[in-house]
Specification:
The protein is an alpha/beta fold and 567 residues long. It contains 18 helices and twelve strands. The chain is globular and about 60 Å long. Keywords: Hydrolase, Signal.
């Protein structure tokens, strides 16, 4: 593989420093002690995080029985209030958000993007909630102590499959440990942490809000939750946007192969975009896309036998083949924000410097706390596995079935090694009742649904959005002509105007509508605003600025642990 020039190497450092500066400039809200508020069957709001309000709602753990001391769960909820009074004629009620995962925190999402979203949807309360079992909601799907989790994560094989001499066996073995601990520590509540029950929780939130019909924006896995709600309560939908739409049938089956059908298209866009951008905007540049592909594949192979050590003031690590595979997979989700810095990291790595890749994609420095409750509200990876393993059909514990699952997925995409861990990770899951709602995901909703899909999405392909739309009469699919996971990852003034109009008036775009992104390429120069597709009005320019901020903030939702890279 060809080396890189000193000039290009300096450019990689400049790009990296610009990315870090942007990340560090984002304000961090003050902490809030969720333990200071009690769970109640009413929404008792408390001021939190400066401009937000927080509460905990008590709901049945098992909806077949009423709430009792032994049958209750607590859902953590945060809202950014509308910019008009709730008594105003302009007030339009709450919009509930789910950011996907499965297992992502809706509280954290609204904290990240609430300010920008209120610019677009100011007449609405913006409401994020942690789904049952996740983060601040209890009982929590947490089966390790901090020391066990730190030791288990790098050894388990649940972050990437088939990367060691044991092959699938390491992932399968990690799944057995995870399943055993889930069975031991989840007694009494494990089976109730499911998507259908989260849909019922949204009904409970609405009732406590004094509302009858749902206004909802679900992203990625949030599209599965939204579609499940719409199928279970079709007459209780006021507005519903599902973005980055997963095939609910495929999700509940645990297959996962269809999710990857567009992943290669997004990878190809990195090669072609880098070749077109030139070395000034893509430090991993080569004269043509095929050479860039070959260079990356050569780097992968080199790292199998010659990983790169990294030592910083607060961390040490080794950048190996598996690390870079997960880094590239992560970047496919967020091309607009990560393709250019990824190219800088790859170029530096090819020259023997792994510090940029580690800073972009590595785990944060370990923090030690004397307070045992310091991490109580944190995301933990077993929340993701709890939701998917409870939702999926039960799998055989035979390791050969796990091998076959990976083989089938690999026929679709080279990134099966980063995706199959969800399926294989459930191979040791304890046996639980699975007699809850499992489709069909169809329904004549009381208001038509708006679905959004990108031209090429590495985890929720456009074909899935088309299929899901067919199950809900009068729904409309809006296509955004961009690459990456969900429309939110690349700014599109057109898309946000459609979404605003839909939530505000209920109007849907014409069938077949395609929205263009605001920028021509992820490998954009520093003065990217000068190379937008078209001149914008003052109002549209404001929306474009907000859309750019949303894209950057939404990309921060990614956890640095690859265990969380799901839907």
């Amino acid at each position: 593989m060809a080396g890189i020039s000193i000039a290009v190497f300096k450019l990689t450092i400049a790009i990296f420093l610009a990315v870090v500066h942007t990340a560090l400039a984002a304000p961090t809200p003050p902490p809030f002690n969720w333990g200071s508020i009690s769970s109640s069957e009413k929404l008792s709001w408390h001021k939190c995080y400066n401009d937000f309000q927080c509460t905990k709602l008590k709901v049945p753990l098992n909806y077949s029985s009423p709430i009792s001391k032994a049958n209750s769960a607590s859902i953590a909820i945060l809202r950014r209030q509308a910019n008009v009074s709730s008594r105003s004629k302009e007030y339009k009620g709450p919009i509930l958000f789910n950011p996907g995962g499965p297992g992502e925190s809706g509280v954290d999402q609204v904290l990240r993007i609430g300010e920008q979203m209120s610019t677009i949807l100011g007449e609405f309360d913006l409401v994020g909630f942690d789904p049952r079992g996740i983060a601040r909601s209890t009982p929590k799907a947490s089966y390790f102590n901090d020391v066990q989790r730190a030791a288990f994560t790098p050894l388990s094989g649940l972050s990437i499959t088939n990367q060691t001499d044991e092959g699938v066996g390491r992932t399968w073995a990690g799944a057995q440990i995870l399943g055993k601990l889930a069975g031991e520590h989840g007694k009494g509540f494990l089976e109730h942490l499911t998507t259908p029950n989260s849909a019922r929780d949204m009904r409970s939130i609405l009732k406590a809000y004094g509302r009858d019909k749902l206004q909802y924006w679900g992203i990625s896995y949030g599209s599965v939750l939204g579609a499940t709600y719409a199928a279970m309560f079709p007459d209780k939908v006021e507005r519903m946007v599902i973005d980055g739409v997963a095939d609910a049938d495929d999700y509940f089956s645990g297959s996962g192969a269809i999710d990857l059908v567009d992943a290669e298209k997004v990878m190809e866009s990195f090669y072609t975009g880098c070749a077109k951008a030139g070395p000034e905007n893509c430090p991993f540049h080569a004269s043509d896309a095929e050479t860039i592909r070959s260079n990356l594949e050569a780097l992968y192979e080199k790292l199998r036998t010659q990983p790169v050590p990294v030592v910083t003031s607060d961390a040490i690590t080794i950048i190996d083949h598996a690390f870079v595979r997960v880094a590239v997979w992560t970047a496919l989700h967020y091309p607009f924000d990560l393709f250019k810095p990824l190219s800088a990291g790859l170029a530096a790595l090819a020259a023997g410097d792994g510090s940029i890749m580690f800073s972009l994609f590595g785990a944060p420095p370990a923090e030690l706390f004397c307070d045992a409750k310091a991490h109580t509200d944190d995301y933990v990876f077993e929340g993701t596995f709890t939701l998917v393993c409870n939702d999926y059909v039960p799998f055989s514990n035979d390791i050969n079935d796990s091998k076959k699952a990976l083989e089938e997925m690999a026929k679709v995409s080279q990134f099966a090694d980063t995706w199959a861990q969800l399926r294989i990770g459930c191979s040791g899951w304890p046996k639980i009742p699975r007699n809850d709602f499992r489709g069909p995901w169809t329904g004549n909703t009381s208001h038509p649904i708006l679905l959004i899909g990108n031209t090429a999405d590495p985890a929720t392909p456009l074909v899935s959005a088309k299929k899901m739309s067919s199950g809900f009469p009068n729904s409309v699919l809006l296509t955004q002509n961009s690459f990456g996971h969900t429309s939110m990852v690349e700014p599109s003034t057109c898309t946000y105007k459609v979404v605003r109009e839909y939530f505000t008036t209920g109007a849907l775009p014409a069938p077949g509508t395609v929205c263009e992104p605001d920028f021509d390429t992820p490998f954009r120069p520093d003065d990217a605003a000068k190379q937008t597709r078209r001149a914008l009005s003052v109002e549209d320019d404001q929306i474009r600025e907000v859309a750019s901020q949303l894209s950057a903030n939404f990309a921060k939702r990614r956890h640095l642990s690859p265990l969380s890279i799901g839907l």
